Amino acid sequence: MNTGDAAFHFNGLTPELIMNAIESLGIYPESGLLPLNSYENRVYQFRCDRQQRYVVKFYRPERWSDAQILEEHAFAFELQAAEIPLAAPLKIDGSSLHYYEGYRFTLFPSVGGRSFEVDNLTQLEAVGQFIGRMHQYAKDSRFKARLSLSPQTYGTTGLVEIAACPLIPAKLRQPILDEAQALLQQVDDIWKQQTPSRMRLHGDLHPGNILWTPDGPGFVDLDDACNGPAVQDLWMMLSGDRNQQQLQLEVLLDAYNEFSDFHPGELKLIECLRSLRLLHYNGWLSRRWQDPAFPRHFPWFATEDYWQQQLQVLREQQQQLQQPPLSLVPY
Questions:
Q1: C-alpha span between 26 and 57 (Å, rounded)
Q2: Which of the residues 30, 157, 178, 199 has an alpha carbon 20 to 30 A from that of 226?
Q3: From CA 156, how far away is CA 150, in angstroms rounded?
Q4: Residue 64's pLDDT band (boundaries 50, 70, 90)?
Q5: What are the residue numbers of the active site?
Q6: Considering the entire predicted model, what is its pTM?
Q7: CATH number, domain at 64?
Q8: Could you tell me the CA-to-CA distances from 323 to 32, 112, 186 in Å, in that order?
Q9: Do residues 225 and 202 touch, judged by C-beta distance below 8 A?
Q10: Do 227 and 131 share a structural domain?
């Protein structure tokens, strides 16, 4: 990954430019721009002069190609047409991806709602049903331009970026790289033993990307949509100790299986996917460190304490991979 997609491209994204870009579509903001929680892109909420609320998203330059962004949009439109509650971009003059002064951006309707409560089993059941519906629809085709989730695309790439990180203290660098490599090897060995499904996924379906609305769950942010195993869109719903996760899993999959068949063998991939997310996350922070927003919001990434903690986490995750996976039948 070159530094061209890092941070400095956003330096020119001034409030005036953002307003002019929105107005170029014939939409005129009346309120100010409220920044929303996004580090990879730049996302703002506003109200227009017709009292409608929108969200505008400016894509990080050079991260995705136009083809990858438009494939994400097409997926969102398909899900929306299938009455799956996902926030899809707006088409204006027939287009969902727009250009202004070298930036690419998209408008969304603003979706209201409160936080999804993972420990609320009624809400979890509803989320499982809608993920099942999404996968029932999405499983029959694959993305052509977007990534496929694998130990190579997430793990190897993350490891390379960690190795290039100048923030790791010298005395911890080799131990961290050794433990990260050992973890990735374990993941690769387990992955090769499985034959997981391959389908179009939301890709980053953590609880923060689910809103609870008066009509039930609503999914947002397909920015990391990818091909991969079905369990990738499920495992981040699980939290707490093993017994709590076991109960959550049963509720989630009972609801999911009403619409799409889950392959129990994929449960062996949960800790693999957690490991890949760990490597991917640290690699992402390293890759984006030139963006001024990252040192400001993640100052602990540059501390010895953080890397000492990560060394322990890498070791613990290797041990976790050796434990029996969660089961559809309680222990």
A1: 16
A2: 178
A3: 9
A4: very high
A5: 204, 221
A6: 0.93
A7: 3.30.200.70
A8: 51, 40, 12
A9: yes
A10: yes
| Residue 133, domain member (yes or no) | yes
Question: Residue-wise over 206-242: b if at least 16 C-beta within 10 A, else e?
Answer: ebebbbbeeeebbbbbbbbbbbbbbbbbbbbbbeeee
Beta bridge partners of 213: 216
Distance between CA atoms of 181 and 1, rounded to whole angstroms?
20
Tell whether the torsion through CA atoms of 317, 319, 322 and 325 is positive or negative: negative
Tens digits of residue pLDDT in 279-307: 999 999 999 999 999 999 999 999 999 99
What residues contact 188, with CB distance under 8 A and at least 6 apart? 151, 155
Which residues, including other chains, have CB under 8 Å from residue 118's CB and lie 6 or more apart?
124, 207, 237, 239, 248
CB 210 within 8 A of CB 201: no
Q: Where are the alpha helices (DSSP H) in 141-269?
A: 157-163, 170-193, 242-256
What is the pLDDT averaged over residues 159-170? Answer: 97
Closest CA relative to residue 220, chosen from 234, 235, 200, 203? 203
Question: Encoding tokens for residue 158?
Answer: 């993350």
pLDDT at 328 (0 to 100): 79
Query: Tokens 């017994």 sit at which residue?
Result: 243
Region for 174 from its dihedrals, namely left if φ exceeds 0, alpha if ψ lies in -120 to 50, beta otherwise: alpha
Could you tell me the sign of the dihedral formed by the alpha carbons of 313, 319, 325, 330, in that order? negative
CATH code at position 311: 1.10.510.10
How many whole angstroms separate alpha carbon 146 and alpha carbon 74?
12
Q: Is-contact 227 147, C-beta < 8 A? A: yes
Residue 326 lies inside a defined structural domain of this protein: no
